[in-house]
């Protein structure tokens, strides 16, 4: 029994030990759990803080629509409190729009039922904040019973960026569309090549240029606009642009629309996008340049022909062009001009040639002229050179910054102006000292100029004339001087006709004092009229006397012609009888004659023949001077005619031992003339030469001619003629006397001249005393 208490004590001890151990374990476990709870609380705080600062905030929507969310999310939505239900997320000044809320509600309901996810962007009312919501079914551990977990992102910046990118994208699309439309509508062919240099795109102008159906055909068949020229194909040119990384330009001949045109082709590298190209038709530009070049050449040719000097300088002040007058005036050599000297050097050269005015400070003068390039208008100067040359210089800046100078030599104009002033003074003095009365009326009828004689003849006051009265007023004052005052209207009408109708008229008028004047109204080149008056009172009296004398002379000439005709007839009758009887005596009809008797009879016959010829000459000369000599023209062989005349006078020449020589060229030929009258004229000259040439003389007849006329030269070595004798040689009634007392003259040369004039020919005489006489005959062929 003694052991029972011990066992009980042991058991109790074990229980106590166990309870103590359990208490210790409980204490240790409690401490561990407390430590873990503290750690968990710390971690939850960190996670809460991370969640509050994260870019996405959770929004839990339970199956009944109730909400669980942080206060920060409510602030994003613009609420000061947490709405209890999803339907309360819309408000007039906070939350989301009704449309966004309806869409979000549908997305949440669909996610709760199907377990799918969604994404939606919404705008917060009353602000520019944009939110992006990603949602789906919540995990059962987070929210059971079909709740939806929404993660809300603040997408304001990204949404603005997206909107900006979207706007830029739309602008880029619009610009691309506009650029595409512009390229398509471009009038010049344009194309695009891929990186392998194949055509990928062409515009309508390209299609029209190559006569293709559409762009697809061009791209598919690879139709090139430019053919291969000098071994360079379009792809080669594009490859060069690609290799160099810069545009490649070239000018080639291209067929566009069936016509050969010159184009400028440009290939533009676009990096990885390929190569673009376009072709510009520059045919008209080239033609215009050629036309401009031809125009410049023609203009310069024209400038070389004008009298003014022209010189043009480029914007860099180098000489571009100068005409020949400029080179002549300033003594510029072409080689020096070809160096295109600058404007200051040209002025230096002008100074060297003394072709600029004398100036005290030449550098300053040159600098002032150099400023002409920047002038805003034309500059005009007058240069007086040391040699008296007067130059007018006009400098005009050109739009491109150059300078055009025109230099006119006005020396002659200045001299003419001075001479004109002198002439005006001389004219005034001359007008005032003229014997005639002179007045000039303007086109409007006013008296412009008059001389003292005009005022004196019409008895007009100089002071009144100084007021330049009109012709009507002036004529009323002048009418009282006329014998018939009404005739002043004729003078007025003539002055008006000279000014308005430009007709010259004249007439005569008598003054009341017996004087007679001849007047005329003459139109002047400047539109004025010149009125002149000349006192013809004395000349009128002389004219009447001369008329009476002329009538007497005409009557005397008629009496002379009648006398010559009657006397010629009266002479012929007894002369014929004398010749007939002398011929009977010579033929011994009345009986035999001695040798001396026969000689007398022959002398009578010769004298009768010569006297008959003289009578014929007198009649022919009278008819020729009166223009009534008949001329019957026919073709006459001049060589034969001259030979017959020479044979006719051979005996007379032999009687005086005169050597007669003929030198007749074949060119003498023939002429349309009256053979009898022409033979008579030449015979008179030959007879005259034989008659006045002394013994053992010489007579030469030379004949030649051309297509238009025949020429005869009849010369002798006779005594010749003095100047006084030559002046009377063709006067039929003038005779001169030699120192020996022998008369010189007669009808020979006057008659020969009249006969040749009747043929349209000409006779000239050349002679000197002691040198003989030369008579030249010019006879037209027709």
Automatic annotation (TrEMBL):
Its EC number is 2.7.13.3. It comes from the Bacteria. PROSITE patterns: HIS_KIN. Residues 566-782 form the Histidine kinase domain. Keywords: Coiled coil, Kinase, Phosphoprotein, Transferase, Two-component regulatory system. PANTHER family: SENSOR HISTIDINE KINASE RCSC, TWO-COMPONENT HISTIDINE KINASE. This is histidine kinase. It comes from Parasphingorhabdus cellanae.
């Amino acid at each position: 029994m003694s052991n029972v208490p011990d066992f009980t004590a042991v058991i109790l001890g074990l229980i106590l030990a166990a309870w103590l151990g359990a208490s210790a374990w409980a204490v240790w476990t409690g401490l561990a759990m407390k430590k873990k709870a503290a750690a968990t609380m710390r971690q939850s705080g960190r996670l809460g803080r991370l969640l509050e600062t994260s870019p996405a905030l959770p929004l839990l929507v339970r199956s009944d629509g109730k909400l669980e969310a942080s206060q920060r999310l409510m602030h994003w939505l613009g609420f000061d409190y947490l709405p209890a239900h999803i339907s309360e997320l819309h408000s007039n000044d906070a939350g989301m729009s009704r449309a966004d809320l309806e869409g979000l509600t549908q997305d949440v309901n669909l996610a709760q039922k199907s377990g799918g996810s969604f994404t939606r962007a919404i705008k917060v009312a009353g602000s520019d904040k944009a939110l992006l919501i990603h949602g789906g079914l919540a995990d059962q551990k987070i929210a059971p019973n079909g709740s939806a977990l929404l993660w809300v992102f603040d997408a304001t910046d990204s949404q603005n960026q997206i909107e900006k990118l979207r706007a830029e994208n739309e602008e880029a699309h619009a610009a691309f569309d506009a650029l595409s439309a512009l390229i398509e509508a471009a009038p010049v062919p344009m194309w695009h090549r891929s990186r392998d240099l194949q055509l990928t795109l062409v515009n309508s102008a390209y299609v029209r240029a190559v006569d293709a159906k559409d762009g697809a055909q061009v791209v598919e068949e690879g139709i090139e606009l430019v053919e291969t020229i000098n071994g360079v194909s379009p792809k080669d040119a594009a490859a060069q642009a690609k290799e160099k990384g810069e545009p490649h330009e070239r000018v080639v001949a291209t067929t566009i629309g069936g016509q050969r045109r010159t184009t400028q082709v440009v290939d533009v590298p676009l990096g990885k996008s390929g190569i673009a190209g376009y072709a510009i038709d520059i045919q008209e530009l080239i033609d215009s340049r050629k036309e401009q070049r031809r125009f410049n050449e023609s203009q310069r040719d024209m400038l070389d022909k004008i009298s003014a000097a022209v010189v043009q300088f480029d914007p860099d002040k180098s000489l571009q062009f100068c005409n020949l007058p400029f080179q002549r005036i300033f003594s510029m050599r072409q080689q020096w001009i070809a160096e295109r000297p600058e404007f200051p050097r040209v002025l230096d050269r002008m100074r060297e040639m003394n072709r600029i005015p004398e100036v005290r400070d030449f550098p300053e003068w040159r600098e002032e002229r150099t400023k002409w390039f920047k002038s805003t208008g034309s500059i005009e100067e007058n240069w007086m050179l040391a040699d008296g040359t007067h130059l007018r210089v006009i400098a005009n800046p050109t739009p491109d910054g150059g300078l055009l100078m025109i230099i006119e030599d006005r020396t002659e104009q200045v001299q003419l102006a001075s001479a004109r002033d002198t002439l005006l003074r001389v004219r005034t003095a001359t007008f005032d000292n003229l014997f005639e009365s002179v007045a000039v009326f303007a086109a409007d009828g006013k008296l412009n100029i008059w001389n003292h004689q005009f005022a004196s003849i019409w008895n007009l006051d100089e002071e009144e004339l100084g007021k330049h009265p009109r012709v009507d007023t002036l004529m009323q004052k002048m009418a009282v001087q006329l014998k018939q005052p009404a005739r002043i209207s004729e003078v007025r009408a003539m002055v008006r006709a000279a000014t308005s109708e430009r007709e010259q008229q004249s007439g005569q008028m008598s003054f009341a004092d017996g004087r007679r004047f001849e007047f005329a109204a003459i139109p002047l080149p400047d539109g004025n009229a010149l009125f002149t008056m000349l006192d013809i009172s004395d000349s009128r009296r002389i004219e009447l006397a001369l008329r009476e004398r002329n009538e007497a002379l005409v009557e005397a000439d008629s009496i002379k012609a009648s006398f010559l005709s009657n006397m010629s007839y009266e002479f012929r009758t007894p002369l014929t009888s004398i010749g007939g009887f002398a011929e009977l005596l010579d033929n011994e009809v009345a009986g035999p004659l001695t040798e001396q008797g026969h000689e007398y009879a022959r002398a009578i016959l010769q004298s009768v023949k010569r006297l008959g010829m003289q009578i014929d000459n007198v009649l022919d000369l009278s008819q020729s001077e009166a223009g009534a000599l008949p001329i019957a023209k026919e073709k006459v062989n001049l060589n034969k005619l001259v030979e017959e005349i020479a044979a006719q006078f051979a005996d007379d020449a032999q009687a005086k031992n005169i050597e007669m020589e003929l030198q007749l060229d074949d060119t003498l030929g023939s002429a349309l003339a009256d053979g009898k009258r022409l033979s008579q004229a030449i015979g008179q000259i030959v007879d005259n030469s034989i008659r006045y040439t002394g013994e053992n003389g010489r007579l030469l007849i030379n004949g030649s001619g051309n297509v238009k006329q025949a020429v005869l030269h009849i010369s002798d070595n006779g005594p010749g003629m003095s100047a006084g004798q030559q002046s009377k040689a063709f006067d039929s009634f003038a005779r001169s006397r030699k120192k020996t007392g022998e008369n010189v003259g007669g009808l020979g040369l006057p008659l020969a001249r009249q006969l040749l004039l009747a043929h349209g020919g000409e006779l000239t005489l050349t002679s000197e005393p002691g040198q003989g006489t030369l008579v030249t005959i010019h006879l037209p062929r027709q």
